[in-house]
Amino acid sequence: MTFILAEDAALKTYLAGMTVSDEKNPSRPVKIWFGYPDLEVRTQDYPFVVIELINARPAYDRMHSGVFTDVDLQGTVAPTVFATSGTTAIYNTYTYEVPVPYDLIYQLTTYCRHPLHDRAVMLQMHQKFPAQRGHLKVANQLGTQYAYRHMFLDGFIKREMADVETSGSRRLMSNVYTVRVLSEMTPSVVSSAAGAVLSVAIDKTPLQYPVPTGITSV
Amino acid sequence: MNNFFQSAFKEAETALQPFFKESADQHGWPSDISSKMTIRVDSAGVHVEYEPDLEKAIQDLEYGDLKSRPKAALRNFSAESDRIIDLIYANKGIDHLIDKGVFG
After folding, report:
1. Which of A15, A97, A203, B16 has an alpha carbon within 20 to 30 A of B100's alpha carbon?
2. Which residues does residue B39 pair with via DSSP β-bridges, in sequence order?
3. CA A180 to chain centre
4. CA distance A131 to A35
5. CB of A77 within 8 Å of any CB in chain B?
6. B86 touches chain A (CB under 8 A)
């Protein structure tokens, strides 16, 4: 996965595994959603956490530009030159543009109906986001390597509301965490994301493989 | 010197008020709420002020509620206002030094 999608997935993974306990279930899982779930789902699934990306802004204060050229075959992105010089050594040279830094701002909102659930979720969330420091393990596109990105808790606010839709006016306890994840986007990601589909190849001879028994060709 | 700071705060308020309104509009805040919010700047920083009875409506907009997702105008404004105010103070300071003849 690439920029933003990778951080989304990493954040969901990071939040996964929280549980709360009560008289009916000693280990009730706290579900994680991207965006507020539908009414039918949330009626049964308290407590839960909602992840929302509220801003993705270029971090101008950390930005610099240019091209990295790497000749020692370390820290590479993609080979662009394969050079030979007579009988002398052959070098692979890798060049790539300096990534553009971004701040991804997430709002993580916890929703609980039971005060004890609320406290239990708060405890676990505060352990995961201990104020002004932290890191998020983000996988690369192939899932073969990881980067640890800085992560900051920029704000916390406690709220309370009435869930009129699902339970009359029953209390709903909510905690809002504003979390900033530092990220970066390589210009090549922009290029690939902006690519247009110029042609579509259609296989006109789909029967080159035998149709399995029981399946009718259309 | 006190006059210098008061003047700088006033200038910052004048610049930040329309910027806040723009940020609120961009995030989809209703104008009848954002127009009742004012920016005040003092030595402690930038403050967004409003009547207490607007508190819940503003929080519901900023952090979302059960029916709508968050429209983080205030947090976006907070992040951007720091950058803007730094520029204003820097320009104001340089103007002040020029007026005082520091650069000859």
Report:
1. B16
2. B48
3. 12
4. 24
5. no
6. no
Query: Tokens standing for A176?
Result: 């809002």
**Test the A interface: residue of B23, B55, B71, B75 with most A CBs within 10 Å:** B75
- Measured between beta carbons, the chain B residues lying within 8 angstroms of A176 are 63
The DSSP symbol for B52 reads: G
Domain ranges of chain B: 2-99
**Tokens encoding A129:** 């986001």
- How far apart CA B95 and CA B89 sit, in angstroms, is 10
Whose structure tokens read 């640890």? Answer: A148
Q: What is the widest separation between alpha-carbon atoms in chain B? A: 62
The partner residue sitting opposite A165, judged by closest CB among B66, B70, B79, is: B66
Q: At what angle do helices B2-26 and B73-99 cross, to 10 degrees?
A: 150
Asked whether the predicted pLDDT for residue A37 surpasses 60, the reply is yes
Rounded to whole angstroms, how far apart are CA atoms A69 and A212?
52
Average pLDDT over residues A50-58: 92
The tokens of A126 are what? 């505060």
- Output the pTM of the full model: 0.78
* DSSP-assigned letter for residue A134: -
Two structure tokens written together for B94: 């340089």
The domains found in chain A, sorted by start residue, are 5-59+101-191 (3.30.2000.40)
Q: Which positions in chain A touch B59 (Cβ < 8 Å)?
A: 157, 159
Model confidence at B60, in pLDDT bands (50, 70, 90)? very high
Query: For residue A40, which residues of chain B lie inside 8 Å, CB to CB?
Result: none
